[in-house]
Design goal:
This protein has 14 helices and 14 strands. The chain has about 400 residues and is α/β, with parallel strands linked by helices. The strands form 2 sheets. It has an 8-stranded mixed beta sheet, with helices on both faces. The radius of gyration is 21 Å and the shape is globular. It starts with 6 loop residues before the first strand and ends in a 14-residue tail after the last helix.
C-alpha cells in the first residue's frame, strides 16, 4: 500500500477554512498537502453563520454539520454527527482531534476504521472548566488511550505526560510555523509604527494569563503601547478582569483580528510578543510570532521552552513582564536581534514535514487496521506529578534564565 492513495477523515474541529485555533490550522495545512499528494481528504466542519457552505476547499472534501450552541456540548454534539456520517461513508483512516471526543471512538472502532487521536494539551488544567468539566477531561484522556489505535502529541511535554501517566506511546507530530516578511504598510490603519508597540494574541482564558500580562505591562514604565488581540466567547467575567487591570492610556484592545495580512504585520513589527499560554502543548500563535521574527517573551512552562529554546525569554509573574518589557525598550536593537533568532528557530517547524508524518501515520493505520489489544488506560499518577514539577520553573529574575 506504499504508493496507494488513501481516503482520510479529519474529525472533531470547527473545520476549514481555518479561522479559530491550532487544530483548525493543522487540519487546513496538513489536509491541503495530503490532497495535493493525491489522497482523498474529508474534513468535518461546524455550521457557521453564513448560509452557504462550500463542499470543497483547497482540494479537501468538506462535510458541514450543525453543533449545539453550548460550550459543554458544542464539540461532542458535532463530533457525534460527524461519526454518524463517517460510518455511512467509510475511509481508510481517521484522525480525531481533541481527547474530549474519545467517548465517540467505539463506533469508529466497531466499524473497523483505524483511528488516531490528537490528544491536544492538558485540557483538565484549563481555568474555564469547573470540577465536572475537569473530571470529564481526565476520564477522556484515559478513554483516548484505551480506544485509539494511535495517539498524536504535538509537544514532547505532552508525549512525556501520556508516557508517564498511562505508559502509552505517542506519535510526536508538532505544528508548522509560517515564515513571513509581510511589510508594514498597513500599520498606519491602527496608528502604529514598526517596533513601536508590544503585542499579545490570545483567547481570553485564565491559563493564557492575559490578565497578568496586561497588569505587568500596566505596572511598567513602558512608553510603547500594548496591543491586545483576542476575545473570550464564553467568559465576560474574565474579560472584565483583564480590562480592569489595564492602564487605559497605554493598553489597546482590538478584539479578534481576522484579516490575516494585518495580523501578520502586527506579529512582524512588534517590539515584543508576550505569550502567557501554559497548558496547550505547542502553540500555533507562538510559532506564528516566531516565523514573523517577533521577539518572544513567554511563560516558562515546558511547552514554551521546547518551542523557543535559547531564542526566547521566559518568566512567570507580573513583575517579570514589567521588567522584561522595560528592558526591551531600553535595548531595541538587541531585542530585534532576539526576534531574528526566533525566526531562525521557527524554521525547524515545517508544515511539509508535519504533513509527511501524518501521511506516514495514515498509511500505518490503513495497513495494520484497528489494533486488537487495547491498553488499560489506567493512570500511574506519574504524569500528573511531572506536570506539577514542570510548572515549578524559575522566574525571569533567577540566574538560570536563558536568553538567546
Amino acid at each position: 500500500m506504499t504508493h496507494t492513495n488513501l481516503s482520510i477523515a479529519m474529525i472533531g474541529t470547527r473545520g476549514v477554512p481555518a479561522r479559530y485555533g491550532g487544530f483548525e490550522t493543522a487540519v487546513e495545512e496538513v489536509g491541503r498537502r495530503l490532497a495535493d499528494k493525491g489522497h482523498h481528504v474529508r474534513v468535518y466542519c461546524r455550521r457557521r453563520e453564513e448560509k452557504d457552505h462550500p463542499t470543497s476547499y483547497l482540494g479537501m472534501e468538506l462535510v458541514t454539520l450543525p453543533a449545539a450552541r453550548k460550550r459543554s456540548l458544542e464539540t461532542l454534539s458535532h463530533t457525534a454527527l460527524s461519526v454518524g456520517h463517517l460510518l455511512r461513508h467509510r475511509v481508510d483512516a481517521a484522525f480525531v482531534f481533541n481527547a474530549a471526543n474519545s467517548p465517540l471512538l467505539p463506533p469508529i472502532r466497531a466499524a473497523r476504521i483505524p483511528v488516531a487521536t490528537h490528544v491536544d494539551g492538558l485540557e483538565w488544567k484549563r481555568g474555564k472548566w469547573g470540577p465536572t468539566g475537569k473530571k470529564y477531561y481526565r476520564v477522556a484522556e484515559a478513554l483516548a488511550v484505551r480506544w485509539s489505535d494511535a495517539l498524536i502529541a504535538d509537544a514532547e511535554g505532552i508525549a512525556d505526560y501520556y508516557q508517564h501517566e498511562f505508559q502509552a506511546a505517542s506519535d510526536l507530530i508538532s505544528y508548522g510555523a509560517p515564515i513571513v516578511t509581510p511589510g508594514s504598510d498597513r500599520l498606519g490603519e491602527l496608528d502604529l509604527t514598526e517596533r513601536g508597540y508590544h503585542l499579545v494574541v490570545a483567547r481570553f482564558e485564565p491559563e493564557n494569563r492575559v490578565d497578568r500580562i496586561v497588569e505587568g505591562y500596566s505596572k511598567s514604565s513602558a512608553k510603547r503601547p500594548l496591543i491586545v488581540v483576542g476575545s473570550a466567547p464564553y467568559s465576560d467575567e474574565y474579560t472584565a478582569l483583564i480590562h480592569e487591570k489595564a492602564d487605559k492610556r497605554r493598553v489597546r484592545f482590538l478584539g479578534g483580528v481576522w484579516d490575516q495580512e494585518l495580523l501578520n504585520q502586527l506579529y512582524a513589527n512588534c517590539l515584543t510578543y508576550v505569550h502567557g499560554h501554559s497548558v496547550g502543548g505547542t502553540n500555533p500563535s507562538l510559532l506564528r510570532a516566531m516565523g514573523a521574527g517577533a521577539p518572544c517573551l513567554a511563560r516558562g512552562v515546558v511547552f514554551n521552552r521546547e518551542v523557543l529554546g535559547d531564542a526566547g525569554i521566559f518568566g512567570e509573574g507580573v513583575a517579570d513582564v514589567a521588567a522584561r518589557i522595560e528592558e526591551a525598550e531600553a535595548d531595541v536593537d538587541g531585542t530585534v536581534q532576539r526576534g531574528e533568532a526566533c525566526r531562525q528557530r521557527a524554521r525547524d517547524y515545517n508544515w511539509g514535514d508535519v504533513a509527511s508524518r501524518y501521511e506516514d501515520l495514515a498509511r500505518r493505520l490503513a495497513q495494520s487496521g484497528p489494533r486488537r489489544d487495547r491498553p488499560s488506560g489506567r493512570r500511574t499518577g506519574l504524569g500528573t506529578r511531572l506536570v506539577s514539577e514542570q510548572e515549578s520553573e524559575p522566574s525571569l529574575g533567577q540566574s538560570s534564565l536563558k536568553v538567546g
